[in-house]
Amino acid sequence: MAPRLCSISAAARRLLGGPGSVPRDVVAVAAARFYSKDNEGSWFRSLFVHKVDPRKDAHSTLLSKKETSNLYKIQFHNVKPECLDAYNSLTEAVLPKLHLDEDYPCSLVGNWNTWYGEQDQAVHLWRFSGGYPALMDCMNKLKNNKEYLEFRKERSQMLLSRRNQLLLEFSFWNEPQPRAGPNIYELRTYKLKPGTMIEWGNNWARAIKYRQENQEAVGGFFSQIGELYVVHHLWAYKDLQSREETRNAAWRKRGWDENVYYTVPLVRHMESRIMIPLKISPLQ
């Protein structure tokens, strides 16, 4: 029985353009947009950092970064198996144009295919600099972007399902910045018991220092719209063996076991995805 092939319309071929159409400037531009800050504070101070009273304010205000107004969107696209290559090519031809266009207040953070976990899946992480107003500005402009509307129409024929979430970043995590590869990425997703987000944040604010030595910590986020009480931790490793060694090393550090002990009871469900970056991803 002959394998099924993903049919590509003439419109999709126009969007794809010629060979080698993936812009080489995506990672360079992304790197110029972001910045890093040195970690500060002693071990003793870290025991008390970000200890918050859940009665004072909304969880999003207490846990998110005050110095930025970034909003993130994560997309999960389940692709027809026979269409994954065509989906990747179409995505790599169109999304960098939005990333590089300064008229759109959005930027690509990372783009991946799931390697281990849910198969034939693409994951995209976007940053909206300026929060909800930037998101709405971008969405309104896209409604009049004929190329993007054509892209969405073609993409819809390749998908089985899709979902998204709007996220804020934890104040004590790194801000995701472009990095050179090759790397694999692990997205660990935790669905928490309602009412436990503050406790989760307080424990991880102390524990994140145990996972910084190899620069494996990429970003930490919690959901604002979509499924609630969901946490995403994004990690980078050179390979699966490096992942194993790095995680084992954390258990040899005094205090890491306490973080696991206190946070495991907060979790209803957890999931791990190992992901491979697409060519356009600023996180390589």
Query: What is the strand arrangement across the widest sheet?
Result: 1-3-2-8-5-7-6-4
Q: Residue-averaged pLDDT, rounded?
A: 85
CATH fold group: Alpha-Beta Plaits
Q: How can the largest sheet be summarized?
A: 8 strands, antiparallel, barrel
Task: State the total count of DSSP E strands.
Answer: 8
Q: Class in CATH?
A: Alpha Beta
What's the N-to-C terminus distance?
A: 37 Å
Helix proportion:
25-40%
How many domain units? 1
GO cellular component, one term: synaptic membrane
GO molecular function, one term: protein-macromolecule adaptor activity
Family: Belongs to the NipSnap family.
Keywords: Autophagy, Mitochondrion, Transit peptide
What does this structure look like?
Mean pLDDT is 85; it is low at 32-50. The protein is globular and about 60 Å long. It has helices at 10-16, 26-33, 43-46, 59-63, 84-100, 131-142, 146-156, 197-207, 240-251, 256-263; strands spanning 70-79, 106-116, 121-129, 159-169, 184-192, 217-225, 230-237, 267-277. It contains ten helices and eight strands. Helix 5 packs antiparallel against helix 7 (146-156) and helix 8 packs antiparallel against helix 10 (256-263). It is α+β, with helices and mostly antiparallel strands and 284 residues long. The protein has an eight-stranded antiparallel barrel.
